Amino acid sequence: MAKSTAKRQDGFQSQHIEIGTMKHENPGWTRAHDGEKWAPRYIHPTVNLRESAIVALRAKNAIDECQYGAAELFRRLFEAMGGKGARAIDYSREFVEGGRFPDPIGDHQIDAGKRLAAAYEALTKAHGLYAWRLVGYICGEGRSVHELTDTRRQRDTMTDNLRTYLDCLASHWGFASRGVDTRARKVENQPTSRNCK
After folding, report:
1. Model-level pTM?
2. Which of 48, 61, 115, 188 is deepest in the core (most CB within 10 A)?
3. CA nearest neighbour of 58 among 140, 139, 149
């Protein structure tokens, strides 16, 4: 892993970039071409490990593919709802006659809100309100586990709890049924988490 900082012209340093690789299932892989060099089942793209806490946890194999998929979907829905910088409506803008007044809330936001509400019900019913808050802090707001804890023991406990909560969301959204090999967790000595059903 390489760390680099870029110095801007005004003398300030930009955010640190930490380059690493992350194992992903190849979207172009098919059973017909299994074993071919040009179509591997898993690819290892280069990513910025400081993009979010979820990317860093996935790169360190602290969470599996299903948990990562659930976390990324939560992040996209959270951002669609305006969780990371909602845009305000400019009421001072003059509209032409016959023009359409923009909706303050779009269909995409409504759909994201409904999906997050269903996920809230599933997660809080199984694990309580703390589970929703923790997933919101880490997956939605992009806070790191180090930022929320003081000691190594707290970080390990929070990461274990996060795995359990992401398993619940993965089960709720159907990520667990995509055929991801669950034996990999046992091989990598990662604890198995309870699923919500």
Report:
1. 0.66
2. 115
3. 139
